[in-house]
């Protein structure tokens, strides 16, 4: 299915190449740590025992008839999996793709070791799509929308800063974001605008104790 979409999309892109346009699809992250929402636009502090829910969202301008299809991977570093007790993308558990966009002809994502280091570092071949309005009783024309969810249970502290970002698939090199131009299924490829999600280790306990002691000394002096 996506091979066909991509072929047509390439032709459409070539026809539009002569004129600049501002069809932008903005991909961004929403994060909860231990059930509490945090600001995902700044580095998120996590440590051993934390339960982290990560959601990938998108909005697009202009809206037209709504989201059509996307195909991508989520790239990270070895440490994301090394620190994990589990990385859960199982659709049966409520993770992975938004059920509204879980087309049976696409994939929910596969863990891959892209640099052959012996540790996973990519969730590859994620496909999200919906049929056009005129043949889809559950058509979702919303904007923005959530598309992918990861549950990250940490067994150990991070050894370094790590990040997640939407990227081309390892297997095919696809990075697709398409919007329906009409109710009949005509679609357009949108230019991606991707935010990077960053996680950082908790400050060492010793350093935190030093800061507390310093604060107590200042209060005593005052």
Report on this model:
The chain is α+β, with helices and mostly antiparallel strands and 222 residues long. It has helices at residues 2-16, 78-82, 205-221; strands at residues 24-33, 36-38, 44-46, 51-61, 67-75, 84-88, 96-97, 108-112, 122-129, 145-154, 162-167, 176-180, 187-189, 191-194, 197-201. The protein has one domain: Immunoglobulin-like, CATH 2.60.40.680. The chain contains three helices and 15 strands. A hairpin with a 2-residue loop joins strand 1 (24-33) and strand 2 (36-38). The longest helix has 17 residues, at 205-221. 27% of the residues are buried. Mean pLDDT is 87; it is low at 1-20.
Would you summarize the structure shown here?
This protein is α+β, with helices and mostly antiparallel strands. The protein has helices spanning 2-16, 78-82, 205-221, and strands at 24-33, 36-38, 44-46, 51-61, 67-75, 84-88, 96-97, 108-112, 122-129, 145-154, 162-167, 176-180, 187-189, 191-194, 197-201.
Keywords:
disordered N terminus, single chain, 17% helix, Immunoglobulin-like, 40% strand, seven-stranded mixed sheet, alpha+beta, 222 residues, 15 strands, eight-stranded mixed sheet
């Amino acid at each position: 299915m996506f091979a066909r979409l991509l072929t047509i999309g390439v032709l459409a892109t070539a026809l539009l190449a002569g004129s600049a346009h501002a069809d932008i699809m903005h991909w961004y992250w929403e994060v909860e740590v231990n059930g509490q929402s945090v600001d995902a636009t700044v580095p998120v502090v996590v440590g051993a025992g934390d339960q982290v829910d990560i959601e990938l969202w998108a909005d697009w301008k202009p809206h037209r008839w709504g989201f059509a299809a996307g195909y991508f991977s989520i790239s990270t570093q070895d440490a994301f999996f090394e620190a994990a007790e589990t990385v859960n993308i199982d659709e049966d558990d409520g993770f992975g793709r938004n059920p509204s966009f879980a087309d049976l002809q696409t994939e929910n994502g596969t863990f891959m070791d892209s640099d052959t280091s012996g540790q996973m570092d990519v969730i590859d071949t994620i496909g999200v799509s919906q049929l056009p309005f005129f043949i889809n009783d559950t058509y979702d024309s919303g904007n923005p929308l959530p598309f992918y969810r990861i549950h990250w249970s940490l067994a150990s502290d991070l050894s370094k800063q790590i990040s997640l970002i939407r990227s081309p698939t390892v297997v095919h090199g696809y990075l697709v974001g398409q919007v329906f131009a009409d109710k009949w299924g005509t679609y357009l490829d949108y230019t991606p605008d991707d935010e990077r999600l960053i996680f950082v280790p908790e400050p060492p306990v010793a350093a935190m104790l030093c800061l507390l002691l310093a604060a107590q000394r200042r209060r005593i002096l005052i």
